[in-house]
Write a structure and sequence with these properties.
Layout: H1 5-21, H2 27-57, E1 62-66, H3 70-84, E2 89-93, H4 97-101, H5 110-116, H6 125-130, H7 140-145, H8 159-169, H9 172-195, E3 204-208, H10 214-223, E4 235-237, E5 252-254
Parallel strand pairs: 1-2, 1-3, 3-4, 4-5
């Protein structure tokens, strides 16, 4: 328990020793080092310790740390498991919202279109189509019919463009092609998940930074009707956006909620 006074004191001492272990003549390098040893390292340690503690309490014997943010967390967890003689297995799982969202696509509705058209200021016809494994050349005729020419493929989309591109994507012929590609991606993903042991009867959970649980939701959907996979999927997160959460709160825990009980003093 990182809130234990003895553990908190030990963490503060380790942070101080680490901070004093190196000095830099460059003030910017020294500042980065100080922030890393005084803030980032203790926080990552505390979060990882919390994940392992919660997993042990719930008899979870394997935790998958999601790429790429989970790489350093997994390394910390492996050290902690060795030091504390924990039997929790820590593994790394290659995952991203994009690589899991397309395989989870089985129909076109408000939810799936929300993912496809999750816009940013540089969204283009090309970048949106890439999310559903298409290129503008694949649907050039359909794009032309709604008013897109080749010069439009790589410019920022307007709200009017989004409506036109939505019409292209939900066109029955195009939608069918996308769902076929989604099915192919789903089969590949399931094979990968089996390879990584998610269907070998272990009691497992995933660990990620947050914030809405998109990967957990996709993982749940992809494996829902596949024999051997555990359900429901359990997730541990650094923080969760409760107002826009995509998963059930019963199956997701956030470290931010435990921070109120976590205090230690760093000697500066």
């Amino acid at each position: 328990d990182c809130a234990d006074p003895i553990v908190s004191s030990a963490m503060a001492g380790c942070a101080r020793v680490s901070r004093l272990a190196r000095t830099f003549t460059d003030i910017h390098a020294q500042t980065i080092w100080n922030v890393g040893t005084n803030v980032a390292s203790p926080l990552l340690f505390a979060y990882t310790m919390w994940v392992l503690s919660r997993a042990q309490t719930q008899n979870i014997n394997r935790v998958y740390f999601l790429a790429r943010d989970g790489e350093i967390l997994m390394q910390i967890a492996q050290h902690l498991c060795r030091w504390l003689n924990l039997t929790i297995e820590c593994r790394y799982l290659y995952a991203s919202r994009q690589s899991f969202s397309l395989p989870s696509l089985t129909e076109f509705n408000a939810e799936s279109l929300g993912w496809i058209f999750n816009m940013h200021e540089h969204s283009t016809v090309r970048s949106i189509l890439a999310r559903v494994a298409l290129t503008p050349n694949d649907v050039e005729g359909e794009l032309a019919r709604v008013g897109f020419c080749r010069e439009d493929w790589d410019r920022a989309l307007t709200s009017s463009d989004v409506n036109k591109l939505t019409a292209v994507i939900i066109d029955p012929a195009v939608a069918e092609r996308i769902l076929i590609k989604a099915k192919e991606s789903r089969e590949i993903l399931i094979d990968y998940l089996r390879q990584e042991g998610l269907a070998d009867n272990a009691t497992w959970a995933i660990c990620d930074v947050g914030w809405r649980g998109a990967i957990q939701r996709s993982l749940q959907k992809v494996t829902a009707n596949v024999p051997g996979f555990s359900h429901p999927v359990k997730g541990f997160y650094f923080g969760l956006n409760k107002s826009e959460l995509l998963i059930e709160t019963a199956h997701a825990e956030a470290f931010e909620a435990a921070l109120t009980g976590l205090t230690w003093t760093i000697d500066t």
